[in-house]
Design goal:
Layout (H helix, E strand, L loop, with lengths): L10 E4 L5 H12 L3 E6 L3 H13 L3 E6 L5 H15 L4 E4 L14 H29 L2 E6 L3 H4 L5 H21 L4 E8 L5 H4 L3 H9 L9 H12 L10 E4 L6
Bound molecules: NADPH dihydro-nicotinamide-adenine-dinucleotide phosphate (NDP).
């Protein structure tokens, strides 16, 4: 009997795949048989550790360095990955940064850095993956959004703008490439326990938990499960959607 969400023969690229939610996505995709390319920017040790964890569990993976905010570097790296493996079936645009502060303190460079990573990174990695996916008439693109892209949050005007943009990108690309067998979806996490949220004061964390019907923070694995589903063959009739993994914090 065939197994649900079987990814044997698939090649997946997870940007920022060495830490946090990206690491959990890398492990989840590899656990179903995909060869996973774990991208990192500066966290070589974490990326290598993720590859080692995948291999220890019997999976296949490699770590590849490039900065998604550099369109030329990202495009040439993604094209090289697709060429070397002869395919690229799954792209998880996970790499992201958050520069949190009140608007009164925001500088133009904060906007540039956030958008070039969170939005530009997803756009140019997807652009580079498209030709291979179109040739195969098959592709799964999953973009990481955020609850704040829909709900907003004080101190996150720029970050939330970048995540709202990702939902627009998702919808446009879903329409643009549906006829080529490529689906494009978004996973929008709520508050997930990772390095990104580690510095939040306890009072702020407790306030978030109070606003969350499931009354706890989420885990990277719970986000990765949604990504795995959307990356599967079985999710073939879902495109342009945002799947919220937020404990009911925004419905
Ligand atoms: P972390 O801060 O824990 O990890 C960020 C990851 O992104 C790292 O792997 C990092 O790589 C990578 N990265 C950052 N910039 C670049 C770049 N320019 N090029 C390549 N890789 C880069 O974040 P999370 O795991 O928490 O978040 C992952 C995604 O989920 C992000 O898009 C985030 O916005 C989103 N999200 C997270 C939520 C949360 O509560 N944690 C909530 C909602 C959305 P390296 O280690 O090499 O720097």
């Amino acid at each position: 009997m065939s197994e649900l969400f079987d990814l044997a023969e698939r090649v997946a690229l997870v940007t920022g795949g060495g830490r946090g939610i990206g690491r959990a996505c890398s492990l989840a995709l590899a656990s179903r048989g995909a060869f996973v390319v774990v991208n990192y920017r500066s966290g070589a040790d974490a990326a290598q550790e993720t590859v080692a964890a995948i291999e220890a569990a019997g999976g296949r993976a490699e770590a590849v360095q490039f900065d998604v905010s550099d369109p030329d570097a990202a495009e040439s790296a993604v094209k090289e990955i697709a060429k070397r493996h002869g395919r690229l079936d799954i792209l998880v645009n996970n790499a992201g940064i958050a520069i949190d502060q009140l608007l009164l303190r925001v500088k133009p460079d904060d906007l540039d850095r956030t958008f070039s990573t969170n939005v530009g990174g997803a756009i140019f990695c997807t652009k580079a993956a498209l030709r291979t996916m179109m040739r195969a008439k098959y592709g799964r693109v999953i973009n990481l959004g955020s609850v704040v892209g829909e709900a907003g949050n004080p101190g996150q005007s720029i970050y939330s703008a970048s995540k709202a943009a990702i939902m627009g990108v998702t919808k446009s690309l879903a329409r643009e490439y549906a006829s080529r067998g490529i689906t494009v979806n978004c996973v929008a996490p709520g508050y997930i326990s990772t390095d990104m949220t580690a510095d939040l004061p306890e009072a702020a964390t407790n306030a978030i938990i109070e606003q969350t019907p499931l009354a706890r923070v989420g885990t990277p694995e719970e986000v990765a499960a949604a990504v795995l589903f959307l990356a599967s063959t079985e999710a073939g009739y879902i495109t342009g959607q945002t799947l919220r993994v937020n404990g009911g914090m925004y419905v």
